[in-house]
Amino acid sequence: MKYTRSTHLAHHPFVRLILSSYLNIAPETINLSSTRQGKPILLNNDCLFFNLSGTRDQYALAISQLVDVGVDIESHKPRKNLTGLAESVLSNSELTRFRQLPCEHQQDYFYRAWSLKEATLKADGRGITLPLQSIGFDTNSTIGAVGWNETLGNKNRWDWYYFKLEGISLALATRTTS
């Protein structure tokens, strides 16, 4: 089993308690493992999908009985070289939009894009193994993919949700498999 922060969080007694309520079994009988990329999974169970994320003292747990799910929570930390980081992470269309924004809005935009990308890759099960620039989002009104890596499958089978809390970005990505 590859050890990651998400794998560690999956073994937390509170997470086991929540998962056990969905499965109607005792928390200590939950059999967890992880994919080669480190995504925590339930062994011997193909009817419950879950994903975890943590930042500072905030945690997010997404659970679904219907679709693959990925979640990412990010604390908005000031970055010394936000523009350089944006250039290495954002797609061309996102980078154009980022550069058009006033400086005071660039950080929020960056974390929104980052959390949507990471939630997508976590739902897929790869983690950050694809170039982040190969996925782009239009987030003006509804969230839609404007740049898409075809190895993630048909983008019409994906849905994204985003919430901004005080200094926190929270993104959820879901993918139907049929």
TrEMBL record:
Occurrences of domain 4'-phosphopantetheinyl transferase (ranges): 69-165
Any one GO molecular-function label of the UniProt entry: transferase activity
Region forming the signal peptide: none
Keywords, sorted A to Z: Transferase
Annotated InterPro entries: 4-PPantetheinyl_Trfase_dom (IPR008278), 4-PPantetheinyl_Trfase_dom_sf (IPR037143), P-Pant_transferase_sf (IPR050559)
PANTHER family: L-AMINOADIPATE-SEMIALDEHYDE DEHYDROGENASE-PHOSPHOPANTETHEINYL TRANSFERASE, PHOSPHOPANTETHEINE TRANSFERASE
Family in the record: Belongs to the P-Pant transferase superfamily. Gsp/Sfp/HetI/AcpT family.
Protein name per Swiss-Prot or TrEMBL: Phosphopantetheinyl transferase
Protein's organism: Endozoicomonas lisbonensis
Organism placement in taxonomy: Bacteria, Pseudomonadati, Pseudomonadota, Gammaproteobacteria, Oceanospirillales
